[in-house]
Write a structure and sequence with these properties.
Elements lengths: L1 H11 L10 H9 L2 H35 L3 E6 L1 H12 L5 H7 L2 H9 L1 E5 L1 H6 L5 H7 L10 H11 L4 E9 L5 E12 L6 E9 L1 H19 L3 E5 L5 E4 L1 H7 L3 H4 L10 H4 L6 H8 L1 E10 L5 E12 L5 E10 L1 H19 L3 E6 L4 E4 L1 H6 L4 H4 L13 H14 L1 E10 L5 E12 L5 E10 L1 H65 L5 H25 L7 H11 L4 H8 L3 H15 L8 H21 L1
Antiparallel strand pairs: 1-2, 1-5, 3-4, 4-5, 6-7, 6-10, 8-9, 9-10, 11-12, 11-15, 13-14, 14-15
């Protein structure tokens, strides 16, 4: 800085040239006494000091401005840097930007070519260097490798011959804190020959850039949030409208800008008690969660929740009003539904509860609380684990994991714990309640105490087991009875066959023999009657033991005799019929049995048919 003003000082403090001496002057000087000469020298010195005083004052003023300025000043000797640029030009480099980008180390070469001469106190404070000497010695610590592009662009501009360069740089102080700086460097010709000097000013614009970023963030939020945001003047004139508010009210933002906010307020809100809220806003500076009825462009009335704040300027004076508006139509409907649900739930005999996503009770009706032996106040706010034993928790947590995956559980049995420590079974149905965006918010749960049902089920199982034992016993008895009945039937059939055989083998032949004796007419009549009576007695037996029911009584007698192994001649003699007559009857029997063309023995066929009949009858009796 001294060199910047040195030329001016030397020029203004140069001693004026002496006037040419004349004869009169020389004579006067020669004869003046020594005292007069000394007085003249003192006067000349005073004149010289007086002539230099404005210059010294000017230099002190500039020095004071340099030292006391709140802006960081750095004085640099760029001689080596200028020579380095000249050397690059001699090497044929014309596109400095491409060269600097291709050779990143060149930037650090340029930094080292700059020799710091002086810095002011503001620069020392800016870099937290502690002292002027420390900064001049270690100024390279201020450069950030990751943000060297800004420094590179500044050196490219100087290399291209620009005398003044403005650039935004990211640097760091000696404590490592990064700052955004507004850099301005000026190449100034030196008063001492062809040399150049560089004066650099640095302004910390970090707060400005942070404020701009914050403003941009808030603007993005203002424009893109789903909450209706507006800004209006203190008189209520809308100046800024975000799309969400316009959509909420059925207007485009342009239709609302410049309108009074009352355009979208329902008439019932403009008068009476609520009309004073605007005055309250101006007096207290904010309104919180105020329910206001808005009227859309199509006339639809919607309930909204309004928050507003007065924004003040730098002087603390009210400047404008920021308002956020939320359409709570769904919330109001939900509140109505919840009120209806609570009314129904409170009176229900089924236990109902609502848990938050962490498992804590938000709501529980009296039935649910009483089911566990608590009052509603005691159960509210408790975690679901409060109503279970440690042994029950693994199963309960498994059910909740399924609820998280599927969104519901249906008719699931869970063990719960009462206040007195006893456990009981409940039947649970639970559902995740979601918001409008599909995000889970709560868990609604209903529970039914099934202790009595379980007791009945246990009793029924015991009765069923007892019935199964009794059924087994009855089946065993039925089997035994069937065996006895089958045996009795066999005995009965055997007895019938024996009766028929005895009559046919013993009684009838005797009667036939008796008829051949000399009987009178009355005796013959009695013998015929006796023979007819015996045929009548054994006729039912013959039908029971016969395979076919279409046989006549004579045919039945012949069938029975054939099964007994009697030959045709024996049967003819026993029945007093001709041999050919018996053959005719045998043919009829074959025809009725459907074995006319069969070569098998008639007796064998009759025995087989009789055996098959008995087998079928036994099978039917078992069924």
């Amino acid at each position: 800085m001294n060199q910047l003003f040195r030329g001016t000082v030397e020029q203004n403090t140069r001693i004026p040239d002496q006037q040419p001496a004349t004869m009169d002057t020389m004579k006067s000087t020669a004869i003046e006494p020594q005292k007069s000469q000394k007085a003249s020298e003192r006067q000349h010195a005073r004149n010289l000091v007086n002539s230099c005083s404005p210059v010294f004052k000017s230099e002190r003023r500039y020095r004071t401005l340099f030292e006391k300025s709140p802006i960081a000043f750095i004085e640099v000797d760029p001689s080596d840097l200028k020579r380095y640029f000249a050397d690059l030009r001699k090497r044929g480099i014309k596109d400095y930007r491409t060269y600097f980008i291709s050779n990143p180390e060149v930037v650090y070469t340029c930094i080292n070519k700059c020799k710091l001469i002086d810095v002011n106190a503001a620069a020392v404070r800016l870099y937290q260097a502690g002292s002027r000497e420390n900064y001049i010695k270690n100024y390279q610590r201020g450069f950030v490798k990751e943000a060297i592009e800004g420094v590179r662009d500044a050196y490219v501009a100087f290399a291209e011959g620009k005398k003044v360069v403005e650039q935004e740089l990211v640097q760091q102080d000696f404590q490592g804190k990064r700052k955004i700086l507004c850099f301005k460097g000026a190449m100034i010709p030196s008063s001492e020959g062809p040399h150049w000097q560089m004066l650099i000013t640095l302004i910390d614009i970090t707060p400005l850039r942070q404020a701009e970023a914050e403003l941009l963030k808030h603007k993005v939020i203002f424009e893109n949030t789903q909450v209706g945001n507006t800004i209006c003047t203190l008189e209520g004139i809308l100046t800024n409208i975000n799309p969400a508010y316009g959509q909420m009210m059925g207007y485009s933002p342009d239709e609302l800008v410049g309108q009074h906010y009352s355009l979208v307020i329902h008439d019932s809100e403009k008068y009476g008690k609520k009309a004073g809220h605007f005055v309250q806003l101006l007096r207290e500076g904010k309104l919180t969660n105020l329910e206001v009825l808005h009227q859309k462009k199509d006339g639809t009335i919607i309930p909204t929740l309004v928050n507003a704040a007065v924004i003040r300027n730098d002087r603390g004076e009210p400047a404008y009003i920021a308002v956020s508006t939320i359409d709570i139509t769904e919330q109001k409907q939900l509140e109505k539904d919840l009120k209806n649900f609570k009314t129904i739930s409170d009176r229900s005999n089924i236990g109902n509860a609502i848990y938050d996503l962490n498992g804590f009770v938000l709501y529980m009706n009296e039935a649910m609380a009483a089911m566990h032996g608590y009052r509603v106040e005691e159960a509210s706010g408790k975690h679901y684990s409060f109503f279970h034993t440690e042994d029950q928790m693994p199963d309960v947590e498994a059910k909740y994991r399924h609820l998280d995956r599927a969104g519901h559980i249906r008719n699931v049995e869970i063990k719960d714990k009462r206040k007195d420590g006893t456990t009981f079974p409940i039947l649970v149905n639970a559902t995740r309640i979601e918001d409008g965006q599909g995000n889970p918010r709560f868990t609604a749960l209903s529970a039914l105490d099934i202790s009595y049902r379980k007791k009945i089920e246990h009793s029924l199982r015991e009765h069923e087991q007892a019935l199964e034992v009794r059924n087994l016993r009855l089946q065993e008895m039925n089997t035994a009875l069937k065996v006895l009945m089958n045996r009795s039937e066999d005995d009965h059939l055997e007895m019938e066959e024996q009766v028929v055989a005895n009559v046919q083998d013993s009684a009838l032949p005797l009667l036939e023999g008796l008829k051949k004796t000399n009987l009178n007419d009355q005796q013959k009549m009695f013998v015929d009657a006796l023979q007819s009576a015996l045929h009548t007695i054994i006729s039912p037996f013959l039908r029971n033991i016969s395979y076919h029911n279409d046989f006549s009584s004579t045919e039945l007698m012949i069938v029975n005799l054939i099964k007994q192994g009697k030959q045709t001649s024996e049967i003819a003699e026993m029945l007093h019929l001709a041999h050919r007559t018996i053959d005719t009857y045998r043919g009829r029997i074959r025809k009725k049995l459907g074995i006319c063309n069969a070569k098998a023995n008639l007796r064998s066929q009759l025995i087989r048919f009789e055996s098959d009949r008995r087998t079928r009858e036994k099978s039917d009796s078992r069924k």
